[in-house]
Design a protein that fits this description.
- Helices cover 5% and strands 37% of the residues.
- It is mainly beta.
- It has a single domain, classed as Pectate Lyase C-like (3 Solenoid), CATH 2.160.20.
- The chain is globular and about 60 Å long.
Length: 422
């Protein structure tokens, strides 16, 4: 097993610390009761009713009915779609379904811990696959950092309902809580798929929490600009990125979990978090508008072991001068903690753009990858965090990481048993 020069050096530099750093070891307790880590075995009733493809007036979905979405369904300007807790929506795989909340429309989907709202494939149990249907797309009028301040959503959608962006930073486009989104990510073309939940220019007053996206064929969550606070999010075995943030997204992610597998990845490279300061295809309006995210309590876990760890990438990819700050987080099973692209040209640049505090990491290569030379000293960006001096397999490190019912990512040893680089 590989022990990098970085870790060899640390054996001489580290000192066990017992009082300075503390961990909140209640990671993922918030997932209990409403999540499903093995959704392919779930049995759902057949649909009673198919939703119209254009919803242009207020519509309420009650949980005594099972609904089907076939093709693209648009909630248009001035209309609100309200979904009762416990409602099941089956999504067509033959005429791939997507729910699009167009600019000026609104989605209110308030599930509960005991009765989450479920969007899932219309296939039978044990036959569902990633990309069975499209996904949920919410379009708002908050700022994005393109020169025009607007953009067009990705995919083959009606142009009338495809424009996003504006100046309504505090807009409330959605209220989403306790929702499971299973097997989304249908291919658009040979190189692009849809995401589980895509937020285009969604305003800061939107409420988005307790959402689980499972087995997406592309990203689980993607934010294009906007400024919503996102809480209690789970991404399970996405093919591409778990959390993708771009076009000047500015916000906070609180309690997030990305559970990846080393054999599930896109050919272009996949990360638990990919953050772009701006979209290179459209450029940006000013350097002050780069994407900036603060993350508290992240569990970024790759279920790798000594036989397959070589298939992993970095946990985080930072590109185009994006800024990302993490605190009280757990990063394990990846090759590196973070990879910076060539837009970061010096240590002082990454120091201003990235921080990792009161956290723990277990990686099998250098924790920090940079594109500039000389690279020496870049590992200082992850100082004052606990780490494993050698790579640990997922089952060696955590209590019950492979459980399909209630996975637990509690460390087998007390965090105080690990060392901190001074």
């Amino acid at each position: 097993m590989k022990i990098t020069a970085f870790f060899t050096l640390l054996l001489f530099l580290i000192t066990p610390v017992y009082a300075q750093h503390t961990f909140n070891d209640s990671f993922m307790r918030w997932t209990r009761g409403w999540t499903n880590f093995n959704p392919n075995t779930a049995t759902y009733p057949q649909p009673d009713e198919t939703l119209p493809n254009i919803i242009d007036k207020d519509l309420f979905l009650s949980n005594d009915m099972v609904y089907k979405i076939s093709g693209n369904t648009y909630v248009t300007q001035g209309a609100t779609l309200t979904i009762q807790e416990g409602t099941v929506i089956r999504c067509d795989h033959k005429n791939p379904a997507s729910l699009v909340i167009a600019k000026g429309g609104k989605l209110i989907a308030k599930g509960s811990k005991v009765a989450p709202i479920i969007f899932t494939s219309d296939k039978a149990a044990r036959s569902r696959k990633s990309g069975d249907w499209g996904g949920i797309i919410i379009i708002g009028s908050a700022p994005v950092n393109t020169p025009s301040g607007t953009g067009i959503i990705e995919g083959n959608f009606n142009p009338e309902y495809s424009i996003f962006g504006g100046q309504k930073k505090d807009e409330q486009t959605a209220i989403l809580s306790y929702i499971r989104i299973e097997y989304p990510g249908k291919k658009i073309n040979a190189s692009k798929e849809l995401n589980g939940l895509t937020l285009y220019a969604v305003g800061s007053k939107s409420i988005i929490n307790n959402i689980m996206v499972s087995h997406s064929a592309d990203d689980s969550f993607e934010c294009f600009g906007g400024a919503p606070t996102l809480e209690n999010l789970v991404s399970l075995k996405a093919k591409d990125d778990d959390f993708d943030l771009t076009m000047g997204y500015t916000g906070t992610l609180q309690n997030i979990a990305a559970i990846r597998h080393p054999y599930i990845s896109d050919t272009s490279g996949s990360y638990a978090i990919e953050i772009d300061g701006y979209d290179k295809r459209s450029s940006f309006v000013s350097s002050k508008s780069f994407s900036t995210v603060t993350i508290h309590n992240a569990a970024l876990i790759n279920l790798s072991d000594t036989k397959n760890f070589q298939h992993t990438t970095a946990a985080i990819s930072a590109r185009n001068m994006a800024k990302i700050h993490l605190k009280n987080s757990r990063i394990s099973g990846f090759a590196n903690v973070i990879k910076f692209d060539k837009s970061y040209t010096s240590y002082s640049g990454i120091e201003q753009s990235f921080s990792l505090l009161d956290s723990f990491f277990n990686v099998h290569n250098d924790p920090v990858l940079v594109s500039y030379e000389p690279k020496s000293g870049s590992e200082q960006i992850v100082r004052d965090n606990r780490f494993t001096a050698r790579f640990n397999s997922v089952s060696e490190l955590f209590i019950a990481p492979l459980s399909e019912k209630k996975p637990k990512f509690t460390l087998q040893r007390s965090p105080n048993n690990y060392s901190v680089m001074q």
